Amino acid sequence: MFRLIMPLFFIIISIVYLVLTFDLPKAKIGNANGPLYFPALIGFFLLIMSVIYLFQEWKKRKEVIEEVKQLLTGRTPYLIAATLILIFIYAFLFERIGFLYSTMLFLGALLFVVNGKKHWLQNILVAVIFSIVTWYSFAELLSVSLP
What we know:
By secondary structure, the chain is an all-alpha fold. The chain has six helices and no strands. It is 75% helix and 0% strand. Helix 4 (76-97) runs antiparallel to helix 5. The chain is flat. The mean pLDDT is 89.
């Protein structure tokens, strides 16, 4: 039954998405329903694909999922928990200290969790260079305002 959780989740998401799509405001110029077509198409496509996914997983519902067993062994639970904690810290710091510094801290900490202390120079360089290049690309080249 564990296999059916994700298809059911996506079916619920697609239904909520479709309901919210039909609440979009009508266009004042041209076709009144124009802004509705593309989001509704995406919603219907997601719903159809989710139902197909549900049927595929229903056929395999008795099989053991080896990937789930692997998630619960070794270092993986630690990596998942550490990543989730770092994401929450990143979200908390993002508005307070800005994109550049919070991204450096988040990426640096995540790289230390994944790669360990042995690759400390590589972790720091990747975190700093990636953050600066990303900030420069968005803030300066694309003129996107970042916190």
